[in-house]
């Protein structure tokens, strides 16, 4: 079954400092380990994000604390090498497209 692709909102990904601020807001509003109803939505509205995004940040924080990470994990796990790789234009200039040339010219007849 094909995976459904969610439309992007055009908002940039959360920075690590913003993730930490989200976690701190939720921790201030929580009573012990229980997050009151509506806190995730209120924090999402405060940071202009979808509640699902804030919930993912919070759940990863809780899971990392349960695994023994001091202070929880709030950093982004995106690789630094995402996206299209840059094209080496100098190298491309020296290799012309052979498919567009006459075959007799290429083999030297």
Please describe what this structure looks like.
By secondary structure, the chain is mostly helical. The chain has a domain at 16-66. 44% of the residues lie in helices and 0% in strands. It is built from five helices and no strands. It has helices spanning 16-29, 39-46, 51-66, 89-93, 103-107. Helix 1 packs across helix 3. The longest helix is centred in the middle third of the chain and has 16 residues, at 51-66.
From the spread of the alpha carbons, the general shape counts as elongated
Intertermini distance:
53 Å
In percent terms, what proportion of residues is strand?
Answer: under 5%
Helix content: 40-55%
Average pLDDT works out at 77
Task: Please summarize the sheet with the most strands.
Answer: none
Number of H/I helices = 5
Key words describing this protein structure:
single chain, 109 residues, mainly alpha, 5 helices, elongated
Summarize the structure.
With 109 residues, this protein is mainly alpha-helical.
Itemize the secondary structure elements and their pairings.
Layout: H1 16-29, H2 39-46, H3 51-66, H4 89-93, H5 103-107
């Amino acid at each position: 079954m094909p995976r459904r692709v969610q439309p992007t909102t055009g908002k940039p990904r959360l920075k690590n400092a913003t993730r930490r601020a989200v976690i701190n807001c939720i921790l201030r509003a929580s009573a012990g380990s229980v997050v009151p109803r509506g806190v995730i939505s209120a924090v999402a509205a405060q940071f202009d994000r979808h509640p699902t995004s804030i919930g993912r940040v919070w759940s990863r924080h809780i899971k990392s604390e349960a695994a023994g990470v001091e202070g929880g994990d709030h950093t982004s796990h995106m690789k630094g090498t995402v996206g299209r790789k840059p094209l080496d234009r100098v190298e491309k200039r020296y290799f012309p497209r052979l498919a567009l040339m006459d075959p007799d010219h290429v083999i030297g007849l």
